[in-house]
Design brief:
elongated, Rossmann fold, 15% strand, disordered C terminus, 2 domains, six-stranded parallel beta sheet, 35% helix
């Protein structure tokens, strides 16, 4: 226990954006259990920044730091300052892929007082529940939780300002459409996204805005060829994307980290699922509708021929 009387907790987490978002309930549960705790997160700062913005972590350290990489080696040299750093925490939570328990052994060798391990491989429980499960060691039972990123008003205002800029002053509800993901098999055909965007605009008075990330090159090319009439949002940080999502009137996207982020910000979220196992990976949020493709093949999920059903009815997940 630190000199303040509050525990010091270290959470180790790699993975992409979606992996990080489904781990948010772990941070929330720890914060609820120990409101005054110092919670430090080792991961990717460009992802983890959003957890700091909402007060779930007090410090973020980069996973790329050499001192962290040492824990993945066999019988590594652990300098005194690194040992002191690990010993300064009351509990270390490791969500690293560690099939040989190399990281756990090295953490204990460094002097970790207690190490709680959670595998990043999700097999049976929903991802959120899977990552919460190891906390039962501490008598923390939080199954069924939702990742929640309650952004401060100042962050939402930033999103509103950016949305107005991309909408070029046009009035009407603003929906963000994300046509990409980390796997082409998870993507609804770009032509369907374009058809939907125009239907939202022309028949429903909605302003569609396409959101693109670094991995969305195929979607970018398709939009450049066939949808120059619809605004595109690019080159934003995860924090800026979260601001936009929290400010938007709605969001529609594939099974992706951005879709999990949208649900976590509380946005009205339409998630398109094909080959992914929705039982394990569906986004959780207060306003989520899941559209499952027939035969789990997104190519067979056609664009709507009339006013989209999700504009008339909302289901919670």
């Amino acid at each position: 226990m630190s000199s303040t009387g509050h525990p010091r907790l270290l959470v180790l987490r790699g993975g992409a954006l979606g992996d990080f978002i489904v781990t948010i309930p772990v941070l929330s549960a720890l914060r609820r259990r120990w409101p005054g705790a110092h919670i430090e997160l080792v991961g990717y700062p460009y992802l983890a920044e959003i957890a700091s913005v909402v007060g779930l972590v007090d410090r973020i350290a980069s996973l790329h730091e050499a001192r962290i990489a040492k824990f993945f080696g066999l019988r590594p040299h652990l300098p005194d300052d690194l040992r002191a750093y690990i010993r300064s925490f009351d509990i270390v939570f490791s969500y690293f892929h560690d099939p040989e328990e190399t990281v756990r052994i090295n953490l204990e060798t460094a002097g970790a007082r207690q190490v709680i391990v959670g595998s990043p491989l999700v097999k049976e429980l929903h991802a959120v529940d899977h990552f919460l499960k190891p906390l039962e060691t501490l008598a923390i039972y939080e199954q069924g939780e939702r990742p929640t990123l309650d952004l401060p008003a100042s962050e939402v205002n930033e999103g509103c300002a950016r949305l107005a800029e991309y909408a070029s002053g046009a009035s009407g509800p603003r929906w963000i459409l994300h046509p990409g993901s980390g796997n082409p098999k998870k993507n609804w055909p770009i032509g369907h996204f374009i058809s939907l965007a125009r239907k939202l605009r022309d028949e429903n008075g909605i302003i569609p805005l396409f959101l693109l990330g670094e991995a969305d090159e195929a979607a970018r090319e398709g939009l450049s060829r066939n949808a120059t009439d619809i605004a595109r949002i690019e080159n934003l940080t995860v924090r800026q994307v979260a601001q936009l999502l929290a400010a938007a009137d709605g969001y529609l996207g594939n099974d992706s980290g951005i879709t999990h982020l949208a649900a976590a910000t509380g946005a009205r979220t339409i998630a398109l699922f094909g080959p992914s196992n929705a039982t394990l990976w569906s986004p959780r949020g207060p306003h989520v509708t899941l559209l499952q493709a027939p035969d789990n093949n997104l190519d067979t999920l056609p664009p709507p021929s009339s006013t989209p059903q999700f504009l008339r009815k909302e289901n919670d997940v």
